[in-house]
Design brief:
Helix content: 25-40%
Shape: globular
Radius of gyration: 21 Å
CATH architecture: Alpha-Beta Complex
Number of helices: 8
CATH class: Alpha Beta
Distance between the termini: 27 Å
Length: about 200
């Protein structure tokens, strides 16, 4: 192997390869215990690997603060080159709620309760949001957001993601939960945020 590398160097091949832009593979980790989220993410950023850490989640209406708290905890494990995220469902009728508190709404009133709230106000407008926080190897955090406007429908579809059963993006009659993973991945808030992260990683390399 050493002889082979020496030959490459002698003929200038190694330097030529570098000049034409061959990039080394960058390892990036997604810190999540949710395998369905990881599955969607892997289809968009194939080189991503999953790290299952149980990170505490503070109760906040600001996704940035939630992500910053998660990153502080992950840093204690000596990690860098990773990202975490926070998903929100915002109902216009609820003045910004549930937002990042959606998990607790799902545990209390569930999809049916959220649908009934939208119905009682006769306002079904909603926004699905995802904020990603990427912590790079230099110790800096970068944020990327994706959002999709849509409407609240009666619950239907599979149960991979809880509130996917009531959210339908504008221009579609299906809920996210009724779509295949490929259909959803073309238009979702996760797709938009991940594409921004992906573009940034290409520049960083």
């Amino acid at each position: 192997m050493e002889k082979y590398n020496l030959m490459l160097a002698c003929f200038g091949i190694d330097n030529k390869i570098r000049r034409i832009g061959v990039k080394s593979r960058m390892q990036i980790y997604y810190v999540t215990g949710n395998h369905e989220k990881f599955k969607e993410t892997k289809l968009i950023i194939p080189e991503v690997e999953q790290l299952e850490l149980d990170l505490p989640e503070i109760q906040e209406l600001n996704s940035i603060k939630i992500i910053e708290a998660k990153i502080i905890e992950a840093k204690k494990q000596g990690l860098s080159g990773f990202f975490v995220d926070d998903a929100s469902l915002v109902l216009e009728a609820m003045n910004g709620l549930p937002g990042p508190l959606i998990k607790w709404f799902m545990k209390t009133i569930g999809n049916e309760g959220l649908y009934q709230i939208a119905k009682s106000f006769n306002n079904f407008k909603a926004t699905a949001k995802l904020v990603i926080g990427y912590f790079d190897k230099e110790g800096n955090t970068h944020f990327f957001e994706g959002q999709v406007e849509g409407k609240i429908l009666e619950p239907r579809g599979d149960t991979r993601f809880a509130w996917d059963r009531i959210f339908s993006p504008n221009g579609y009659e299906k809920t996210f939960a009724e779509m295949t993973i490929e259909e959803k991945n073309k238009i979702s808030h996760r797709r938009i945020a991940l594409e921004k992260l992906k573009a940034y990683l290409e520049i960083e390399r």
